[in-house]
Amino acid sequence: MKRFGAIFIIIGVICLGVFGYQFLGHQQSQKQSLAQAEEKINQEVGLVGDRNAIETFEVEDQEAFATLEIPKLGKTLPVVEGTDPDALEKGVGHLSNSVHPDQDEQILLSGHRDTVFRDFGELELGDTFVVNMPYGEYTYEIRDTEIVPEDDTFVIGEMGEEVLVVTTCYPFHMVGNAPDRFVAYAYPVNK
């Protein structure tokens, strides 16, 4: 019986070690991406208000190019091009075939509930997101939310107006793969 107890303790310590290693790796990747995004924003500050720069703005896959502030949660997160696992490890992913702020269509951002969007369940209608781009700062107010199955892609597509759509896994405090997605629809505040 003592051997089984010792085996379970060893397994527990190994699991904690693996979790700690992964957590620290995610934290380091996000810090590097945030520094890269802030550098890009500061380097191109002269583009603010430049309509041509806004309409032709492009970034490379995996590049951190913007920040997402969530004032209610006191967070500033890096926005990285792409939504594959490598991009989501670095920060909030931007769906490559959606547009960027001030391009008058759907902007889709996605992130993990247990890394960048921890405490996301505290957000309410009326709360805001602030996206800082090399060509300006954009504030969006959450006006609607919904929960959809994980394979529901109807939330992605043209909306006919500028809408920041932010998604993460749901339920927020579930261990393992979540069956649903939480979707927040936020609209420009000063447009």
- Assign the CATH superfamily: Sortase
CATH class type = Mainly Beta
Coarse morphology: globular
Radius of gyration: 19 Å
CATH topology: Sortase, Chain: A
Task: Provide the domain count.
Answer: 1
The overall strand count is 8
Q: What percent of the residues sit in helical stretches (DSSP H or I)? A: 25-40%
Describe this structure in words.
With 191 residues, the protein is α+β, with helices and mostly antiparallel strands. The protein has a single domain (2-188), classed as Sortase, Chain: A, CATH 2.40.260.10. Helix content is 28%, strand content 31%. The protein has 3 helices and 8 strands. It has helices spanning 2-43, 51-56, 85-90; strands at residues 64-70, 75-81, 92-94, 106-110, 128-133, 136-149, 163-170, 180-188. Strands 1-2-3-4-7-8-6-5 form an 8-stranded mixed beta barrel. Strand 2, helix 3 (85-90) and strand 3 form a beta-alpha-beta unit. The chain is globular, with a radius of gyration of 19 Å. Keywords: Hydrolase. It holds the Pfam family Sortase. This is Class D sortase. GO terms for molecular function: hydrolase activity. The active site is at residues 112, 169.
